Amino acid sequence: MARITQEQKYQRRWWTLGVLSLSLVIIGLDNTILNVAIPTLQTELSASASELQWIVASYVLVFAGLLLTMGAIGDRFGRARILSAGLVVFGLASIFAAFTESATQLIGARALMGVGGAMIMPATLSIITDVFPREERGRAIGIWAAVAGIGIGLGPIVGGLLLENFFWGSVFLVNIPIVITALVAGYFLVPASRDPEATPLDLKGAFTSLVAIVALVFGIIEGPASGWGSPGVITAFVVAAIFGGLFVWIERTVEHPMLNLDYFRNPRFSAGAAAISIAFFALFGVIFLLTQYLQFVLGYTALEAGVRTAPVALGMIVGSALAPRFAERFGTTKVVAFGLFVLAAALLSFTFFGTATTYAVIGAAIILMAFGMGNVMAPSTDAVMGAVPVAKAGVASATNDVTRQVSGAIGVAVIGSVFNSGYQRSMEPVVAQLPPEAAEVAGNSIGAALQVAAQLPGQAGQALADAAKVAFVDAMGLGIWIPVVIAILGGLMVLRFMPPHHLDAAEEPGAESAPSDIAQRS
Fold first, then answer.
1. pLDDT at 511
2. Which of 273-277, 366-370, 396-400 is modeled with the greatest confidence?
3. Which residue has the higher pLDDT, 213 or 358?
4. 118 and 14 in one domain?
């Protein structure tokens, strides 16, 4: 990183935000670009259903598991350094992924991308907290959250365009120009920052948190496929509970904890983290079903489905841009609760979707859902970051990111499990007359049911396809009721527990050592 004075750091803060936001784009882009590529990967790499699952899951598992550790390393050794290193790792892993020749190699490449992502994401938010004074931080985080939405929204469109015109590896190579631009611009515009006390790294806390989070996410991912009562899943949850308990004990007793658990005594920190968790539980689970609905039920191609999920970006941009101003005027409490209630209303409209719902209705619901998300994400993230000393911004950012990833994985698992149960139950009488092997696959997924239907003659094939679509829609409506209820309860929780504004640093539990904003700029 080039040397930047304190005055230059303040003067260039908005340019710095641009570089950090660009670095974040590849995280959001990569999370969704792969969704439209799954059918292609299945064909090109002859990947099994389990391998396809782990192409997605390996990234999430490593990313979530390393976030806290990478946030702490950034605080200790320098956030700009960890950001640059993360970009390099992510870029090299993307090249490796693009030219893999087997599903196993791609799973490994995705895991390596998870390492890079875990280095990038907490660094971006912690640097924002260091560069911007508190009175501007809410707006800066709003822009940061909006850019994350852009990446999420553009992913399916970019993925569809690339798959229609280039080889499948192009969905990973698209990361390279972004990485190079962010590295070059970051050298000149991203200032160095770290914890001035340079406390020793909490290796015991890092290890136990890594094992606990990885075991938890593994159990959540494997639960729907292997069964929640299977030995492997139960073992994963037991390991997560044991190491999670060890992590809490270590953080309570060690002299320099990686994560000061007293931060959770601050209701803005804990309520903000809870609101983010609820929002991402809903988003990940619903997007998982929505992309299938658009392609399997309504018959859109991968590119057409990608274009039709793009309004997620529009809603997130508008919601995230307006939320900080609303929070300044009405208080964080009302804005976050409003966002959760809007999210619940949008998701409720999803339960009325049918096999012939017009896209105008679907698009409006998607925009409303994303607008609610934007009103939750930006002020809740600001609440979490503002409740923690600036010196520990990396760990606070990582905590914020862990809640997103873990709750998102839980959302896919829980909503997906309820959906699968409903779909299979509806299809049981429909597939009863099919040969046993065909009945099993058609009863498990709509994609397989449509493939079986295409091989049946005349009316029999059409009847099976129609029944599968109806079963999918009914099961989707059943699954979406879960985030609807949770979002409503979350809104009520926020109204009850979240303070509307930041307290002075000295009044915030766990934030006694936070430097003033004047000190940050001096």
1. 44
2. 366-370
3. 358
4. yes
Residue 511, in any domain of the structure: no
Residues ≥6 apart with Cβ < 8 Å to 330: 500
- Say if residue 8 is in the same domain as residue 138: yes
Q: Which amino acid is at 100?
A: T
Distance, CA of 227 to CA of 334 (rounded, Å): 40
Q: Which pair of structure tokens corresponds to residue 259?
A: 């994560």
**Domain boundary residue, one of 192, 216, 234:** 192
Alpha-carbon span 18 to 185, nearest angstrom: 9
What CATH number corresponds to the domain at position 385?
1.20.1250.20
Q: How many domains does the chain have?
A: 3
Query: How crowded is the C-beta side of 427, counted as CA atoms within 13 Å?
Result: 30
Q: Please state the pTM of the whole predicted model.
A: 0.76
Tell me what the mean pLDDT of segment 65-94 comes to. Answer: 85
**482, 414 contact by CB (below 8 A):** yes
The confidence score (pLDDT) of residue 361 equals 93
DSSP labels, 461-488: HHHHHHHHHHHHHHHHHHHHHHHHHHHH
Name the domain boundary from 164, 192, 220: 192
Q: Is pLDDT of 239 > 90?
A: yes
**Per-residue model confidence as pLDDT tens digits over 105-116:** 998 999 899 899
On whether both 108 and 217 belong to a single domain, the answer is no
At residue 395, does pLDDT exceed 70? Answer: no
200 or 463, higher pLDDT? 463
| Contact criterion met (CB below 8 Å) for 437 and 443 | no
Cα dihedral sign, 430-432-434-435 = positive
Backbone angles phi, psi at 502, to 5 degrees: -65, 140
d(CA 260, CA 271): 16
**CB-CB contact of 410 with 288 (8 Å):** no
Range of the domain at 30: 1-192
Residue type, 376: V
Q: Which two tokens stand for residue 504?
A: 């002075």
